[in-house]
Amino acid sequence: MLDGLSVAAALKECGVTHVVWVPDSDLGTWEAALLAEPGLRLVRVCREGEAIAVAAGLYLGGQRPVVVMQCTGFFEAGDAFRNVVHDLKLPLHFIVGIRSYHAHQDGKTSDSCPVFAEPIVAAWNVPHVVRTRQYDPSCLVAAYQQTQAGNTAFVLLLGE
């Protein structure tokens, strides 16, 4: 998993202004570093659908937000995602942690989140990439650059 300092540096390199999130699981370990980075504003929300709406407002206001959530929250936020990404066509960037991904790959859990995360993102017809055990901060930068280059939403799925 990526450490918070690397994540904060990668997001700053991309010019991200706000991280809108529900800190959960491994992603929540980034909080201290994100708070300490003066170039980033950390916005905590109550629900993942709210995170998408807040990020949409920030984007429309000229900011460069990233939405960070766990896959179970992504499942819950489907209508907000559909509206913002497909109806409004906002090129938001999402970092979605796949809970229990490595344990599932190793046969050590019956958690179904890893089974459905990528197929659900694919069903939303949004460009995405899955990164598992072999990733570093450069995957954050590359994924964000894809969002910007394509002027479309993009989902980076990170196996936890």
Task: Record the SSE blueprint.
Elements: H1 4-14, E1 18-21, H2 31-36, E2 41-44, H3 48-60, E3 65-70, H4 71-76, H5 78-87, E4 93-98, H6 101-105, H7 113-123, E5 128-131, H8 137-150, E6 154-159
Parallel strand pairs: 1-2, 1-3, 3-4, 4-6, 5-6
Helix pairs in contact: 1-8, 3-5
What does this structure look like?
The chain has about 160 residues and is an alpha/beta fold. About 50% of the residues lie in helices and about 20% in strands. It has eight helices and six strands; from the N terminus they run αβαβαβααβααβαβ. It has helices at about 5-15, 30-35, 50-60, 70-75, 80-85, 100-105, 115-125, 135-150, and strands at about 20, 40-45, 65-70, 95-100, 130, 155-160. The protein has a six-stranded parallel sheet, with helices on both faces. The mean pLDDT is about 95.
Number of strands: 6
**Number of spatially distinct domains:** 1
Structural class of the secondary elements?
alpha/beta
Spatial shape: globular
CATH superfamily grouping: Thiamin diphosphate (ThDP)-binding fold, Pyr/PP domains
Mean pLDDT: 93
Helix fraction by DSSP (H/I, runs of at least 4): 40-55%
- Radius of gyration over C-alpha positions, nearest whole angstrom: 14 Å
- Alpha plus pi helix count: 8
Stated plainly, the CATH topology is called Rossmann fold
Characterize the largest beta sheet: strand count, sense, and whether it forms a barrel. 6 strands, parallel
- Secondary-structure element sequence? HEHEHEHHEHHEHE
What is the C-level CATH assignment?
Alpha Beta
CATH architecture classification: 3-Layer(aba) Sandwich
Beta strand %: 15-25%
Give the termini separation. Answer: 7 Å
